[in-house]
Amino acid sequence: MSADELIIEGAKQNNLRNINLRLPHNRFITFTGVSGSGKSSLAFDTIFAEGQWRFIESLSSYVRLFLEKLDRPDVESIRNIRPAIALEQRNTVKTSRSTVGTTTEIYDYLRILYSKIAAPHCPNCDSPLRSWTPSDVAGELVEKYSGAKALILFRSEEPVEELQKKGFHRALIDGKTENISSLVTRHPSIDIVLDRLIIKDEPRLSDSIETAWEHGHQKIKVDIIGDTPESSRSIHFQSELRCTECDIVITKPQPLLFSFNHPLGACPECKGFGNTLTYSEDTIVPDKDLSLQQGAIEPWSKPAARWWYRQFAKAAKSRGLDLKVPYKELPGEIKRLIFTGASDFYGIDDFFKELEGKRYKLHVRVFLSRYRRAEKCAHCRGDRLREEALAFKIGGLNIARLSDMSVSQLSGFFAGLSITEHEKEMSSEILRQIRLKLDFLIRVGIDYLTMNREAKTLSGGESQRINLSNQLASKLTGTLYVLDEPTVGLHSRDVSRIAGILKELSAAGNTVIAVEHDRAIIDSSEWVVELGPGGGEKGGNLVYSGPKEAFLKSDTLTARYLNNTNLIPVPYVRKKGTGKALIIKGASGHNLKHIDIRVPLHTVTCVTGVSGSGKSTIVKDTIYTALASHFKVDFAPPQPFETIEGLEHLKGVKIIDQAPIGKSPRSNPVTYIKAFDPIRKLFAEQPEARMLGYTPGHFSFNTEGGRCSACSGAGYQQLEMYFFEDLYVKCGECGGKRYKPEILTVTYNGKNIYEVLDLTIDAAAAFFSRVPSLVSKLKLMSSVGIGYLRLGQPATTLSGGEAQRLKICAELGVSKRSDCLYILDEPTVGLHPDDIGKLLNVLNDLVDAGNSVLLVEHNPDVIKSADWIIDIGPEGGDGGGHIVAEGTPEEITAHRQSYTGQYLRPYLQSLNYLS
C-alpha cells in the first residue's frame, strides 16, 4: 500500500455501488458524470465526510459528544486520507454585517493599517491633526525654530501654594512673565513658565518639554519670542487629537475604531449596518393606480385595520377629498396629510406608531416588517462608521472610500500608494498581506466585487471563489480540497484562470478534487473519474478512473461529448419571433452605461458577458423588476432606466432562480410540485388504512396525527452549533423515517409511505404507472434532468441548479400560460452535457407555447442554441456595462471585441459548423 494514494474500498453512500477506487495524491482530479450519477456522493458525502470525521476524532471528548451524532459515510475503509476542506457553491451567509472585505480579511488588515499609519483630520473642517510626544515636540522645534528664544509653558489649575512647593515660581500673565506670589486673587488656571531658553538640540530642551508634559497632563504651549510681534507666535502641543479651531477631540486610532461590527467604531444611528429600516410609501401604497376607496393603503385594507380607514374616510369627506381618485393623481400635500394625520383624523404614521407599542407580539412584528424598507443611513450616509473613524485618511481617503472600491481599483490604489520610510517600517507586512489577497481575488475572476458588497448578496459561485482565494492565501500543503463546480458563474475567458489555480494548488503538495462538467477544467486536470452510466438508480458505478489523456480516448458518455462524438445539435432553423420586442431604453443601474436593450419576444434570448459585466443588473434588477411592478407581482423598485416599450405584448413575467425551495428538511420535491396530496390520498384509500380510520392527513409529515412526534415529521433534528453552521442529524426516534411505526404498516403496491418517499423520481414514475396525473408530473421532472432526485429528498440537500429545475417543472405543471416572459439565471448549473439537451427542449417547449425565454448563461452549448444573443461587457465592474454585440450566435462570432464571440467561434468550428 502506497501513502501516495487515497484508497477507498466499498463505498456505498447513497446510490454508490460498492465502489473501490485509488486516487493519486498531489494531483488535480476531476469527478464527472451525468446528474445524479454519484459524483457528490463520492466526493463530498464519502471522501470529504470521512476527512471531517478524522478531524472530529482529534477533538476533545466533550466536543465529540455533540459532533458524533453525525452519521459516518457508508464505506468499508478509506486509507491515507488527508485533512479535508470543502469549497461548495453555496452561500450560507445570512447577516448584513458580513462583507467581501470582512470575508476575505482584507478589511481586517485595512483596520490595522489605518490604526498604524492613517493621518487624522478634523471631522468638521478637515484640517490635519497630530498626536504629539515630547520627543516629537523637541524635534519639531529644533527643525523649525532652532536658535530662537522660547518659553516652555504648561497650564495648571493647582493652588499657588502647591505650585510653589513644587518649585514653580513664574507664570505668564497678560503676556508678561511674573512671579506667582504676586497673584492676589486665585486664578482658575494659569500658564506656568517652566523654562526660558534658546532652542538647541541639547538635553535641556528635551528635559524641559518632558517636565512640562508631565505637569501639564500631556499638553504644553511654546511661545516663540521674536524681534517683532509679527515674528512671535504661540504653538500648542498635546497628545490628544484636538482641532483647536473647532475644539473637537477625536479618539486615538485603534483597530476596533474602524470596525462597524463593534460599538467603538459603528455608526451610533444605524449600529454599523449602513442603513436603517423605515416605513416606505412604496410598500404601504404598492399599487398607486388604486384609489383610496379601492384600498390603495395596503395595511388599512386588512380586516383588523378597517377602523383606521373609516375614521380617515369620514374626515376626508368632510374636507371634500374625492376617495375615488387614483392615489398617484393626488397632490403631494394630500399624500403628506394622509401619512401625518391632522386634528380630526389619525394618519398612517399614527397607525404604525400604535403598532410599535405592541412589538412584543410576534404577529405584529411580522406585520410591521412587510412595510419597512432599508434606506441609507442619513447619519453616516451608508459608510457604517462613526465620524471619528472617517476622520483618518491614507492617501487622502478614509477607510469607507477604500471599501467603496472594487478589488481591481483597490489593487491599483495600493500599487500607487506613497508613504514615508517610517510608515513602511510599521506597515510593510500588513501591506504585503493586503496586496497578496487582492492578487488572489483578481486571479479567481472576481476583481469587480467591491469591498463593501454584502456577502449575503453573492452568488454561490462568487462565494466559492472567495473561499478559494482564501485557501490560496493560506498556502496550506498536504491538504485535500474538494470543490463543487468551481466554474459556476464564470465566462469561458476566466475558466482557464481557475484551472491554473487548481493546478497550482496541487503542485504545492495538495490533492484537489473538483466535481465538474466543464470541458476546459477536465482537459486541464491530470486524473479523471467518471461515475454513471446514468443517474439515480442507474448510476453509482465507477465507469472510468485514470489519466486524463486515456480518458479523452475512451468511450464513456462524457468522453464522447468532449471529443464531439456526441453533440447537442445547433438548431437547423433559429426562431425569429413575431417581430414584437420588449425594449428598455437608457438603463443606467450599477455599472450600466445608459444602454438600450431590445429583447425579441417568442424566442430564446441569451444574455452573455464576463463576470460583473452587468448581466444580472439588466436582466434581474431592471427588466424583471420593471415588469414585476407593471404586472403587480412584486413592487421592488427597478434600477434606473428611461422608458420601456412592448409591455402590451406580454401578459406576465416569471423569474425562475436558484434560491432554495425551502429552508428546512421538511421541504422536498414531491411537496413542491404538488404531487404529495394524491399520494397521501392513495394510501388513505388502502383497506388497512380505512380499517384503522386513517385519513390523508395521517400520511402527512406536516400535520399531527401520523408524523413522528420527536422530530415533528422532519426526519432530522436541528443541532445548534453556535460558532458553526447548524447541523441536521437523523432523528433518533424514527430513524429519519418521519412517521410513527403504526403508519408505516400501511402499504401501497408493497411499499409504505416512507419507502415511496425514498424512491427516485424516475423509479416513482414506473411505480405509479397506473396513476396518470402523478406520472405526468414525475416525467416532467425527468425531462429536465432531475429524475435521480428522491421524492422526499430534503430541500437543504438540493443544489441551486436542482432547485431551479424543480421550479421550472412546477411552472410547467401548473399552467399553460402564453405571452409570459420567463427569466432564468444560469439554468445549466450542475448539468452534464447529456442533460443540457433535455433542458433546451423544455425551454423551446415554453417558446412553442407562445412564451418568451430570457437567460443569463455562460455555457457554450446553450449560447450556440439560443435564437438571439446580447453580449454585455467588455469587462467587469467599471469596465463593463456596454452592449458589445447582439445578434444570432453566428453574428456574434464575427465581433472581435466580444469575448463571447472569441470563444464561441472556435467551438462552433470544432463542430464543423463554421468554416
Helix-strand layout with pairing:
Elements: E1 5-11, E2 19-24, E3 28-32, H1 39-56, H2 61-67, E4 75-79, E5 84-87, H3 100-103, H4 106-117, E6 119-120, H5 134-145, E7 149-156, H6 160-165, E8 170-173, E9 176-179, E10 190-198, H7 203-215, E11 219-225, E12 233-238, E13 241-243, E14 248-250, E15 275-279, H8 281-284, H9 306-318, H10 332-340, H11 348-356, H12 362-369, E16 372-376, E17 392-393, H13 399-404, H14 407-415, H15 421-443, H16 460-474, E18 480-484, H17 492-507, E19 511-515, H18 519-524, E20 527-532, E21 541-547, H19 548-552, H20 557-562, E22 581-587, E23 595-600, E24 604-608, H21 615-630, E25 643-645, E26 652-656, H22 669-672, H23 676-684, H24 687-692, E27 716-719, E28 727-730, E29 747-748, E30 751-752, H25 753-757, H26 761-767, H27 772-783, H28 800-814, E31 820-825, H29 833-848, E32 852-856, H30 860-865, E33 868-873, E34 882-887, H31 889-892, H32 899-910
Parallel strand pairs: 3-19, 3-20, 5-18, 18-19, 24-32, 24-33, 26-31, 31-32
Antiparallel strand pairs: 1-2, 1-4, 6-17, 7-10, 7-11, 8-9, 8-10, 11-12, 13-14, 15-16, 20-21, 22-23, 22-25, 27-28, 29-30, 33-34
